[in-house]
Amino acid sequence: MGRARLKLDLDPALKAELKKQFKAANEVRQRQRLQAILLATTGQHGYRDIGQIVGCSPSTFSLWLNKFLSGGITELLRREAPPGAPSPLGAAVLHAEFCKQSQRESSRTADIAPNTSTSADSPESGSNSNTTYPEQFTEGRKLPLAAKALIEIIHHNPNAYGINRTNWTLESLAYAFEKQFGKKPARSTVGRLLKQAGLRWKKSRQFLTSPDPNYKEKVELLLKTLKSLKADEDLFFIDEMGPLAVRRHGGRCYTPKGKPPTHPKNQRAKGSIAMYGALSAKTNQVVWFFGKSKDSAGMIELVEILYNQQHVMSKIFLTWDAASWHRSEELVQWTDDFNAWNGVSGTGPHIVFIPLPSNSQFLDVIEAVFSGMKRAVIHNSDYQSPAEMKDAISMHFRARNEFFRVNPKRVGKKMWEIDFFEDHNNIRWGNYREW
């Protein structure tokens, strides 16, 4: 004999309602129960068969069937309270604690003078039940009451809870939670709630700023000059690099897992190099030469090189950071005399300085080009002499200049927009091709 089959006769309207709710159900437990009852109406399955199809035991299906027969769909889908004691972090328990604290706060406020206020850092200041939580923390998601309570605690300094720390840890948050609500969650629970609230452990990111009182005016002058360059004018970003020791350098590279690359910290240098560079804003060409040190004499030599290369121009603008040799009296006097001589002779470009604000090296675009060069030919290098390092640097810049000679492009992508200078992160490493 085969297994006994179950045949459940239902009103067509009730059966249609079962199918409708089964299609609309989102929870697995609801779909299991509704599907089990629908299978029972077909008359083709027994208790064990239905249990195997929906993933439950025959006794569980029998329990669902009895609920449906006694109370219909409502009783079938009714969620029963789980066994055991209520969670100490449950909404009902925390809500009761919030109400108690609100009553204590109200009575304490009534006993003190009207002009006395509670410290903003005190964990008991204000009513927690009326606390609003910023959208940047919750991002519109519905959070458990315990997670909201943790966010409120994070808004205060740990010292307000008697914790001698300047930042929060999972253990200190659990301690503060217990001190405020009388219930101590586990560290794993605190971590789970913070993750649910969208909070992560992150290190503060340092950003560059300039204390120059004329920062805005100097940047606007640079931008105005860039946007108004004529066909016979050019602007050069100028900077120096070095002294750079000739030794084994570290850097990022592909390596087997668990075997990070190493290089000795203390090394005997095989020499050093110093380099001057200028980057054309219009043609993206780099002009460079190697010197012995960074001083006004080197800057004068670089200006003379640019003058000879740009002899057909009517004006060249030079912008650089606020290094001392960039604004020395020797350089300024030489430039004034040089411009005066050019004015009398009527030949050669007029030289104009556009100094950058102090402590704003991130505005000097050639810094990004230097960074790209160092990643390409300095990192992971082990040159044996200064001449070998200079040859590698010169080869890199010659290849770069040739690339932009064949593929003309102005310096930078957003440099010609004012927003570019408001966010120094837009100045990338200076790579001009994928490799």
Mean pLDDT: 79
Q: What's the total number of strands?
A: 5
Low-confidence segments: 112-139, 418-435
> CATH H-level name of the largest domain... which superfamily?
Ribonuclease H-like superfamily/Ribonuclease H
Number of helices: 15
Coarse shape: elongated
Q: H/E order of the elements?
A: HHHHHHHHHHEEEHEHEHHH
Main sheet makeup: 5 strands, mixed
* Integer tally of domains: 3
What value does the Rg take, in angstroms?
Answer: 37 Å
Spatial order of strands in the largest sheet: 3-2-1-4-5
How would you classify the helix and strand content by structural class? alpha/beta
How would you name the oligomeric state of the polypeptide chains in this document?
A: single chain
Report the top-level CATH class of the largest domain. Alpha Beta
Task: Kindly state the percentage of residues in helix.
Answer: 40-55%
Distance between the termini: 75 Å
